[in-house]
Amino acid sequence: MTSHPVASARTASRATWRGRLVPAGLIALSLVPVVAGAARVSQLAGGGPVTAANARFFDSPVPVIVHIVGSTVFLLLGALQFAPELRRRAWHRRAGRLVALAGLLSALSAAWMTVFYALPPEVTGPGLSALRLVLAAVMAGGIVAAFLAIRRGDVRTHRAWMTRAYAIGLGAGTQVLTFLPWTLIVGAPTPVGHTLLMAAGWAINLTVAEIVIRRSPGPGAARSGRRSAPAGAPLS
Predict the structure, then answer these.
(1) Residue 53: helix, strand or coil by DSSP?
(2) Is 41 exposed, middle or buried (0-12, 13-18, 19+ CB in 10 A)?
(3) Is 49 exposed, middle or buried (0-12, 13-18, 19+ CB in 10 A)?
(4) Are 169 and 143 in contact (CB under 8 A)?
(5) Cα(103)–Cα(106) distance, rounded to whole angstroms?
(6) How confident is the model at residue 135 (pLDDT cuts 50, 70, 90)?
(7) Cβ atoms of 78 and 105 closer than 8 Å
(8) How much is the pTM?
(9) Which residues of 76-104 are buried (b: 16+ CB within 10 A; e: fewer)?
(10) How much is the pLDDT for 83?
(11) Which residues, in sequence order, are CB contacts of 75 under 8 Å at separation 6+?
């Protein structure tokens, strides 16, 4: 008759490990854009060589620095918001305010750079600027919607919009996975290919986000006895 407690303990242990793997995986996916951003800041601070590809950053460094800092905090601290153990603590709420602010800075600075930076052909393609502006608006709007939702106690809507916003912010990490195989097998993408590969990264993230949102139990399920959220549960 002791099998039930043992089985429950094993199930809880597996759920705990799954819950830890999700933030770890998100942090790992964030490392490439985070490291690249740190290298960019170091280049700007050290007065590195100015080329046609990076002249816009030296001419107007503040927006890109704001974007790098905001994105780094949003991606790394935001990944920890997916940990079920932390979601049940006051830390989650306090850190969430910083995550939201960092996400807004990331989205708004991305929109500013899209509009005002002269983008070289190798980092853009037809329709990509419009797509960036739309996604920046959705990301910023999603964070605002999540904030308003939690203010009125709507946890499920809050989680859903923060998950979508994080998926958009993590696009640069997934885009490494879409560009790398293409570049190794086919070579440098054409302008149209560049747009499609960029869009594919965001599309993958948003698709996964919607699957997670739909599979996640509502707050009532947690109160009724489900103490551990499933791996990959959205932000709250």
Answers:
(1) coil
(2) middle
(3) exposed
(4) no
(5) 5
(6) very high
(7) no
(8) 0.84
(9) bbbbbbbbbeebeeeebeebbeebbebbb
(10) 86
(11) 26, 27, 30, 33, 34, 166, 169, 170, 173
